[in-house]
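Ticket #4471: complex job returned nothing on first submit. Input attached below:
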Amino acid sequence: MAVLEEPIKGVPTAMNYIDGEWTESKGEIIDVVNPATYETIGKVGISTKEEIDSAVQAAQEAYYDWRRTPAVVRCRYLYRLRELLEENFEEVSRVQTQEHGKCIDESRGETRRGIENVEVACGIPTLMMGDSSEDIASGIDEYLIRQPLGPFGVIGPFNFPFMIPLWSAPYAVATGNTVIIKPSSEVPFSQTKITELAEEAGFPPGVWNMVHGGRTVVSGMLEHPDIQGITFVGSTPVMEDVIYPGCGNTGKRCIAQGGAANILVIMPDCNVDATIPGLMTSFFGNAGQRCLAGQTLVIVGEDDAFYNEFMEKVTDRAKNIRIGYGLDESVQMGPVRDVKKKESILNYIESGLKEGATLRLDGRQAREIVGGYPDTCYLGPTIMENVSREMRVVREEIFGPTMGIMRVKTLEDAIEVCNESPYHNGHAIFTSNGKYARQFQYDVISGNVGINIGIVAPMAFFPFSGMAGSFLGVLHTQGKEAVRFFTESKVCIHRWL
Amino acid sequence: MNLRTASETLSFIRELEEKAAKFYEELARRFPENETDFLSFAKENRKFNKQIQMAYQSVITDAIEGCYAFDMETDDYAFDTDLPDNASLAQAAAKALAIEDKILDCYNIGAEQSSSLLADVPRNFRIVSKKRNKRLEKLKSLT
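Support reply: We reran it on our side without changes. The output follows.
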């Protein structure tokens, strides 16, 4: 099959978009590298404090008129953006693959998920409606209205460069706020493309802003008194040590989504052939760089025959995964994002082996890379057996294409393993027994629960519900909760004398 | 060649449909008395391509196993569209039926393999298969 054409050409520099103007950052300019080919595909600036301040000022100034723009009119900008995203569906998907490394099927899935959030936000005239009660006492009425607050910061991660900022930004602007998006500087071009389309959609200057960069931009957002709230998706240490306390210090609203080390439970009654593709996607999809990726597979029961047969099928499927550049349509798993991340994953595998795990499938070196690209960022799928609940490979987030295998006697034991994890983002069970499924759903501590689903990614009209270790805040991104997050409830009580 | 991902499988199916569409356009040129039917088959093939593409782009989300949905060999569905210059209408229709068989196999096996994995894509494969029944009857009547 074909290797699809690359959309990013000629090493462009990703620009900031502030107050409706494209400007090159005054900060240090760094390379953006395609991890699949290890070629420099572009450059991006690490913006300065002055640049983030000027974006906040623009967003604050635009807010006054934007919040007075009727919700139905604000939505029309989003409808236009949605149409433009559809028209550019293939291009934006390929940009993700080129800058991140994921397979084209995965990028298209990401594009679809992002667009769905724009579509849901288009319903804001209804979603934003308040409540009212007549005659709370004789002749006195009470009602609630939802009002926007001002500029919001949206801080995106590297692993879903297109979709994740769209969990927030469309709801923010639909409700009458203004936004400043800070994409990951490793993957700046997906958000740059979206912002180009937002400009084409006609958003007034200052409503939709984007500032590339790193810590300075994040600190600038956290410290700025005009920023009303932050949505963040990234690592748990940054969530816990920087974002959440930073928002607390300045009284900002905060949705902070962190890491995960998800556990998938296999009951012996599961539909094995239908389960295995789900496991491949969960553990090795996006090269394991998902906060909803499976990390540990807990197999329930003492039936050695089932275990051996099941593991043989899993291993056989995993070892035959095609690895390479995601723009090659035949590729099933791309590289990890960069060398540092690869090293970190390799260190985790080593720590697992030191702590007593055994290698069933060794992916420390990719067996064969389709297209013969340099193996700088590539890994193969790794399967480690005999992992136990106290090991780092179970308790810490690896964020790579690894599968740890643990055996337990009962479903209760498996749920205990899930609940002992420091992370509670997306645990799942595979079974054909409704009672087991319900028990798991009822007892497991997990913001998102999968029943025969390996990647428990909520649709745009449901909240992305992480829990402890994977989340700090109250409300979540997406859907109605995002609408609540981006609006203040104002209650009015009327008595006409 | 072995097909595994949704992207490559759908690209392959698109090529099959387009190749068959061109074959029908050639038949329309050669057999003017059946031009309307053959051109309508060609047009329908392209509509099927759009329908499948739409289904794929509408449902291929992060939760669905797009990279692991298929295990198909392209050789099993390959066909040629060569037709001798002096071929009769009956021979042409027989050739078209053979092509349709291959395409139907591809859709049916693809639907079976991806049935619990790709949501609306296998459903649309089945719709497209079913919609071909009328043309099969027509082609059979010409043999």
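Chain B touches chain A through 25 residues (CB under 8 Å). Closing as resolved unless it happens again.
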